[in-house]
Design brief:
This protein is α/β, with parallel strands linked by helices.
Length: 905
């Protein structure tokens, strides 16, 4: 009870706090120093800790650094239960103090440390849910990590329900509603409000809290009349209450919500009055020190001035936010910009204000600061899906920034703005993939004998198992998701411990500029990097370490629709449309080519690396038509492959990171599955593919029952070139990329925590470069999954691979690699060989047949051994031939009818 009382005391007495980043040093009075020294001599750690905590109550602003230095000044660790409880109280206070000074990230760390301390030492402390878990979750809400907030909020709710603590349960239901609302899940948000309301009485003051959030939900749903009715009733109800510390905050929140509703209704005078009422309450009851609330009010007041076309007044309000957060409005110190969604919004709105004033340079500077604050949030997010969501949410802001930079580039001809455009494009491109690549590269440099790494591997395996159960329809999905959330929670804490022990594993938080990135490129490298926005498409050409040209295409939505329709019509739905309407295909392909690559001066036979974005990632550029001179002779069509050698990359930064991968000794492994799933429907072309490659490359060939999941993972760890010829598909609602082996499937998320990774993975399977689209991150494909775990590059299929073409082209590609050609050039020549063969039926010169496979990654030469003439090799070939013979015999003699080859799709 003593711990609970002390925690409650600090929550009720914490006023007059510092700015967001202030941790000024304090001159401790001599009397306090004597007291602390005396307690230290007595070895009285508990009272020593409580004395420091009590002192921080008096003037928390000046004493924050004093409180935070407690650990380094203590003389020993807590031993007894009372000492451990005192230490827990210290950690909780540190979290609270950091939160109120606006340092959300440090506050999160303190609360996390407090929670882990309780778990580690098995402390049974009353109030842990309310004073550690609840504010901890709220911090994640402030950061924008609503998924993590919901997980901790559920833990808090479980505590509250178990202890029959209805006031806490109501508060948590309200906070969960806020999290769901922020994620756009209004149905679950309203369910939480309903569950909270069921625990109240008609006269309960907690109804005020719930109705505030309910009004916010209706406001977000644009049900403004209902929102206005609820919040007006709420304000009347609160005015009848005797104001105190807690009820004043509720009224402050109500006025903010009322202001938001009126602002949306364009009643700006009424909205402004509501915001000023909220500001007055903040100043009266909290001495103006609920900093984030104060900042939010100023931002909303600034937005009103923007809507009224009064940008100078808006900037005045925005500068007050900067002063509130301790950032000098006159000159922003970039190093002091921190991750907070308030700052993200502030800098963005300030950019809009400068835009209204026609001050484009200032507008660009502020929107770049907004992206910087967003990036600093992203660095702190743990869950991959949360990071991808956050990346997607900032893309519109990035497009606006590119638009301003493009305007300045056209106006000033200053090359700096071209580099800024590339900077911003890279900030929106495959950032979580880059994190995964770096993390895996760093981890591979360390010894994995440490038990922490072993525990990490176990947790990752358990998570992958549960994800697999979800996709395969195992037990109750809710139970699996709950179990997996707990595992991810433990994994995140474990990864923090690993990072503390091995600082080199910490992801770099440096944001590379285009200038520094380009200096790392070989001079001969030629990129075209796309950005697909809502209004415009941009293409940045980079050559000889310079941004050579920026192209902008208007009407982006129509262009993206045209590309999507083109891919679905002529590729994803089979070759029929291309065969029956060759001229229509020809014309549409040429139109898309001119839209995306028209105007670039590309030299004959040069190597070009395409970095696609969004739906552009579904295109293979090799088969694009470069002029509008239609000819019926398909073999003579002007395909881009006849002009250039192409490869692809996820981003410049991922390409650079993949380039650092050290080449492994030349070991080839191939897995070949000759049937589809469990129906054993034979695919003769797979056997032919294996047979063709075996004649060219020396290595380990595994067929059917020898090509099981365990064989795949074993080959993955040992081979430097891994060839997989099997059925591939997208599973579940999330379109999870999946490979089918003889016994069971392997999903994308299972490709993690591997000790080594091949230099090249060849995915001679359907749609292995396809997957769910994530705005700002790209296509979540098997190709991307292999890149994330350290593979140097992949050859993968963008649509259902034609078996005969895959067999010939991959075999030819290996032959070319053995001749010393780099991977992309080897694939380029293999495709050209297909086109230059004059013996084919006319339709097989169409891109559907020969252009499905693309190379994604850093281009290099790989070590392979040519096939020998040993008896063992003859044995392998004999086995493959026998397999093919019996398969064909089965088809001819048993079924008694001809069966055309079945696609691997």
């Amino acid at each position: 009870m003593e711990v609970l009382a002390r925690i409650l005391l600090v929550y009720l007495s914490f006023f007059g706090l510092a700015t967001a980043t202030a941790q000024t040093s304090v001159n401790v009075p001599q009397s306090m120093t004597k007291t602390l020294d005396s307690l230290k001599k007595q070895d009285n750690l508990s009272d020593w800790l409580y004395t420091r905590i009590d002192y921080s109550y008096v003037n928390p602003r000046q004493s924050l650094s004093f409180l935070m230095n407690t650990e380094q000044e203590r003389w020993r660790k807590p031993k007894s239960t009372s000492e451990k409880e005192a230490w827990l109280m210290l950690l909780s206070n540190q979290g609270y103090n950091q939160m109120y000074t606006g340092n959300i990230l440090n506050s999160i760390n303190c609360y996390e440390e407090a929670y882990n301390y309780v778990v580690e030492h098995k402390l049974n402390v009353e109030g842990i849910a309310e004073y550690v878990l609840k504010p901890w979750a709220n911090n994640y809400t402030r950061l924008g990590d609503y998924e993590k907030a919901l997980f901790i909020q559920q833990k808090t709710l479980d505590h509250a329900l178990k202890e029959r603590n209805d006031p806490l349960a109501i508060s948590v239901y309200n906070n969960m509603a806020i999290s769901y609302r922020s994620l756009g899940d209004f149905k679950k948000a309203e369910e939480c409000i309903h569950l909270g309301t069921k625990k109240t009485t008609p006269t309960s003051a907690a109804l005020v809290l719930l109705d505030n959030t309910l009004a916010d939900i209706y406001n977000d749903k644009d049900e403004l009349s209902l929102a206005e009715k609820i919040i007006s009733r709420n304000i009347v109800r609160q005015k009848q209450l005797k104001p105190n510390f807690e009820s004043a905050y509720w009224l402050l929140s109500s006025y903010i919500t009322a202001g938001n509703i009126q602002s949306k209704k364009l009643n700006f005078a009424v909205a402004q009055n509501n915001y000023l009422q909220a500001l007055a309450i903040n100043d009266k009851y909290y001495n103006g020190n609920r900093l984030r609330e104060k900042a939010y009010i100023y931002i909303q007041l600034g937005k009103i001035k923007l809507a009224q076309k009064q940008p100078n007044q808006a900037i005045t309000y925005f500068n007050q936010v900067l002063n509130t957060f301790g950032l000098a409005a006159s000159k922003i110190n970039v190093e002091r910009v921190f991750g907070d969604n308030r700052l993200v919004d502030l800098f963005y709105q300030k950019s809009l204000a400068y835009g209204q004033l026609g001050k484009d340079k200032e507008a660009l500077e502020n929107i770049q600061l907004s992206l910087l604050a967003a990036d600093k949030i992203r660095f702190e997010l743990a869950d991959v899906k949360t990071k991808q969501r956050f990346q997607s949410e900032t893309k519109q802001m990035a497009e606006n920034a590119i638009g301003i930079a493009f305007k300045l580039l056209a106006k000033t001809k200053d090359h700096l703005f071209a580099e800024i455009i590339v900077d911003i494009i890279e900030q929106t491109r495959a950032r979580t993939l880059l994190d995964d690549i770096r993390r895996n590269q760093q981890q591979l440099t360390l010894s994995t004998k440490d038990p922490l790494f072993q525990e990490k591997a176990k947790l990752e395996q358990a998570i992958a198992y549960n994800e697999k159960e979800l996709l395969q329809g195992g037990e109750s999905p809710k139970e699996i998701e709950k179990r997996n959330s707990e595992l991810k929670f433990k994994l995140e804490a474990l990864e923090k411990n690993i990072t503390q022990r091995y600082p080199s594993l910490a992801l770099s938080k440096d944001i590379k500029t285009a200038n520094s990135l380009l200096k790392q490129l070989p001079r001969s490298v030629h990129f075209i990097e796309f950005f697909a926005g809502n209004s415009h498409l941009y293409a940045a050409e980079i050559y000889n370490r310079q941004v050579k040209h920026i192209k902008r295409v208007s009407n982006a939505q129509q262009v993206k629709k045209d590309i999507s329709d083109f891919v679905n019509t002529y590729y994803h739905n089979g070759p029929t449309a291309m065969i029956n309407q060759p001229k229509s295909f020809f014309t549409t392909s040429n139109q898309i080519y001119k839209t995306l690559l028209g105007g670039f001066n590309l030299s004959k036979n040069e190597k070009l690396i395409i970095i696609p974005d969004e739906v552009i990632g579904y295109l293979s550029f090799d088969g694009m038509i470069t002029n509008d001179n239609y000819q019926p002779d398909i073999a003579s069509w002007p395909y881009l492959i006849k002009e250039l050698s192409l490869s692809y990359a996820f981003s410049i930064q991922t390409w650079i990171n993949q380039s650092t991968k050290k080449l492994n000794p030349g070991r080839f492994a191939g897995l070949f599955v000759t049937h589809q799933n469990k129906n054993k429907q034979f695919i003769p072309a797979v056997t032919k593919e294996a047979e063709s490659i075996a004649k060219i490359v020396d290595g380990k060939f595994m067929m059917d029952e020898d090509a099981r999941v365990k064989d795949f993972f074993n080959a993955f760890d040992k081979a430097n070139v891994l060839h997989i010829s099997t059925h591939s598909y997208l599973s579940g609602l999330q379109k999870e990329p999946t490979l089918s082996f003889d016994d069971e499937p392997v999903f994308l998320f299972e490709l993690s925590a591997r000790k080594t990774a091949p230099d090249l993975v060849v995915l001679s399977a359907c749609r292995t470069a396809d997957g769910m689209m994530n705005t700002g991150e790209g296509i979540i494909s098997l190709s991307r999954g292999f890149a994330a775990i350290g593979t140097g590059g992949t050859i993968a299929g963008l649509w259902n691979v034609n078996d005969q073409a895959a067999s010939e082209i991959t075999a030819s590609c290996y032959h070319n690699m053995l001749q010393g050609q780099a991977i992309s050039l080897a694939l380029h020549h293999a495709k050209l060989d297909w086109l230059q063969n004059k013996q084919r039926p006319a339709q097989e010169y169409l891109p559907y047949y020969w252009d499905a496979l693309v190379y994604m990654g850093y281009d290099k030469k790989v070590a392979l051994k040519p096939a020998g003439n040993s008896l063992a090799d003859y044995g392998k070939l004999s086995a493959l031939v026998l397999t093919a013979f019996f398969g064909i015999y089965y088809l001819i003699k048993v079924k008694k009818k001809a069966i055309s080859p079945v696609s691997k799709s």
